[in-house]
Write a structure and sequence with these properties.
Layout lengths: L1 H26 L10 E5 L8 H6 L4 E8 L3 E2 L3 H10 L3 E7 L6 H11 L10 E4 L11 H19 L4 E4 L1 H7 L1 H4 L4 E4 L14 E8 L8 E6 L2
Parallel strand pairs: 1-2, 2-4, 4-5, 5-6, 6-7, 7-8
Antiparallel strand pairs: 1-9, 2-3, 8-9
Helix pairs in contact: 4-5
Amino acid sequence: MYGIGRFVVIALAVAVLGVAGWRYAAHWRPSPETYPVQGVDVSEANGAVEWPVVAGGGADFAYAVATNGAVQRDWQFEANWQGIAAAGMRRGAVHVWSMCQPAVAQANAFNTVVPRDDEALPAAIDIDAVEGCDAQPERQQLVDAVRQAASMIEAHTGKPVMLRVSRAIERRYDLASAIPRPLWAEGNFFAPDYASRPWRMWRASDRRRIDGVDGTINWDVAAQ
């Protein structure tokens, strides 16, 4: 019985620590003293967002997914794009890259959906593994494709794009050394160092919970 009782006590302690850790992670963000400019990035997966509430919770800017590949438009983009501006926040648009679709078609899709706004933040191309696409192009093929799409988007927006590159993609393709654009890296709770160049933006948590958004949200900080 003593052994069973001890096991129960240990199990309860582990459960309590797990709950405490989850709560801490859900409310954690990098120090504003170290990173004074902080914000969020969203997609249709976040549903309807109450942007004035998000702004009041400490977000200075927001990025919203606009397009995915060559044919898929984020159904929440228009509401997010207008809502971010109405809340007095700076806004930027994201294109989710597909390894399975042509670069020109992807850039055209983004340029059609996202209006030119000289006050907007630089557009971002999000390069990661995408569900439903198993293509694994050679490095030079991917580099050439991203360069082509980036140039087309830049001609539309008038600003250099940012590249949001996942750890796995950067490890395989080393895009940072091949495409000289500002980097948006990812790493929950710990500043990322997997790219060959310093990052301009850091997705510091994909587990944060804030008022104005159902469920978790991506929290980002800008380098000083």
